[in-house]
Amino acid sequence: MSTAKPSPSSSPAAADWRQRALGRLSDYGPYIALAALLVVCAISSPSFRRPQNLINITRQISYSGIIAIGMTFVIIGGGIDLSVGSLLAFAGSVGIIAMNHCDNPLLAVVVAIVVSIAIGTACGALNGALITVGKIPPFIVTLGTLSIFRSLTLYIANAGLLTSKHELFARFGGMIILGIPLPAWLLLLLTIIGAIILQQTRFGRYICAVGSNERVARYAAINTSLIKFSTYVIAGFLAGISAVLLGGRLSSLSSTTAGLSYELDAIAAAIIGGTAMAGGRGSVIGTLAGALILGIVSNVLDMWGVSVNLQGTVKGVVIIIAVLIQRQR
Amino acid sequence: MPEKAAAILLETDSLAKAYDGVLVLSDISLQVKPGIILGIIGENGAGKSTLTKCLNGMTQPSGGRVIFQGEELRELSVADAIAKGIVTIPQEFNLVSDLNVYENIFLGHEPRNAWGLLDRPAMRAKARELLATLNAHLDPERRIATLSVAEKQMVEIAKALTSPCRLLIMDEPTTVLNQREVATLFTVMRRLRDQGTSILYISHKLKEVREICDEVIVLRDGQFISHDPIGALDEAEMARRMVGRDMSQLFPPKASPPADAECVLDVRSLHVPGLLHDISFSLRRGEILGFAGLVGSGRTELAETLYGLHPMQSGSITLFGQPYRPSSPARAIAAGLAYLSEDRQGSGVLVDFSVANNVTLSSLRQYCRPFISKSRENARAQHYVDAFHIRAPGIDAPLRSLSGGNQQKVAIAKGLDTAPKLFIFDEPTRGIDINAKSEVYAFIRRLLDQGISCLLISSDLEEVIGMCNRVAVMRAGSIAGEVSGDQLNEDEIMYLATGVK
Fold it and tell me: Which of A127, A269, B225, B351 could bridge to B400 as Cys pair (CB 3.0-4.6 Å)?
């Protein structure tokens, strides 16, 4: 039953090869950009390449970087979480209030860690439940909880600063291991764990499937609600971790500014790192590269003496260029 | 008027179309005279729809020329085509269901009054007039949502006729009509032809083509095969030219399970509110049962209910000797069911995922301990690629780079990888080419030989008749009857499907 089919010319194969090569290139795009940025900055600014400055950058990006890992899961699963910044402030504030009820310093720090992470996880679960059980679009739900969590934080802190009475908390937050700050270590560790979950486990594959086409996923016997719910729980859990680290850094949290606009940094890091805004595809390691790019850009702008007020413009341009490059695929 | 334009309305010269480097239409040269009904026949994937899209501006040909009324058409847009009098009635209706009949008829070119506002009285009057010429006595004020399928089609035709129409393209217009409605449609078509309009009538229903067309063009695998007066071809010859070989070779010999094979599925009085009423049937091991019926008769809903996508209200199901109450696809798969969805890209495969990742999507658990073993996954995918002759750049290639037929094979592989004992195929050959089709039939036959039972839902009557010994015909959410043996023919099935002799 062989029919004489017009033999395909060589051009589609060539086009296919070119497309794949381009695809490869844009897979590595964030890392190439990061490397190029490092070289340019290191050459142009002696103060940039000082080890202490580089270590500072890793610390600075850790807080929103850890949140960005969660954001990557949420976006790949086809959602968005705008509430993570407020959620961080709320979880951290409750953690500090709880620790101030303890007199034993060590116990107090443990309480702060456990309470912040528990509150973060619970708030993430609330987001997830509203989205999957309540069937409300994620943008709406997390816009609502963004407002709720911030308002609750302002209420419990009287719109002021919550300070830990334990000096150990600041020692914990400022801990340096092998010359690298604790938050940076955690960012690295969580990135590796996140990358393994996303690439090597059934759960990770299912997140991509749900974000790629939820209907297909449902027909393939995937519990799509549970998968989507889990991504918000992960985002909340990581926001909780970030909250303790941020609180421990200065031994206090400002109810008005803690975590403010972290959701934007987290979304930006994920997008720059190659995660598709429409879901279905992305990489946790790419997100780390995205967070580093954002951190280095804002650091080097400081070094060059560019007005702080202009840094938002540069950040915005970087995000738009990243999306433009993604579009080319 | 130049004489040439009068003699030939439309001419194509070496027309070709390629999608992503794959030729779907090549070297088509044909001529359409004014005032005739020209049938264009061919199997799914023969290029019929692509040809019409090149003529009505939906897509641009990759090569060749189209000459309409003596003028070459270049960079044709849909609006240009309509302005020139090339009007298409699409296979799927383009009507806004919340607007009424006359609003739809004039959608996009509404008459205005002196104030620049909608001239509703004129629209109403003109719509009534148009519908009267079609012998369709419809109230122009009725909402589209309240119309029957046949009435909607009349609205589509009326809409087409609001602009002067020289060439009317009808793509499978009778798929959803019963015989009485088809007769009305044919009367309208003859009247239009007698008024000088030419009609391109796309169909694969050969009997209807013989009844209505003056001439017939056969396409196969994107190639022009023949153009003859209708009297020159009988149905068997048309079929032979469409398929390129005897139809009997398309289908494997029918499977006949032993009479004492155990019953694997027994459905009694299944009821799903608003979808299915009082469904009863049974299926034996290694048997294939066909499900025929019109679009919307509840066949897909029945399959989805068994697969756990719609909650059942009452009735009982016995699956492999155990009582079975579907609750979720995961439960259905665990019970030994697989379902190939009719909507391949909407609910069947992930076009962004690779071949390997699609194949293992429903059966991923087997590959995890706890991390996914990519080597086992790839080995499995390679097994299916070899067994089913899946033509793909590689098992890591995204599915969007595969043709429809090869995507369908991946979708079947995905179902098979869960090791089902009962496989439900819903329109398994829709939109795939003839070779892939015959391969799909061969797979189904192989499954039956292995003792896997199948349900085959199809709108293609030749397919259900060619594959099954027994066919259940559904109408309006229930089983209107079951045909087998001598009764297993198109007339009997259509009678049960429409309720009209």
Answer: B351
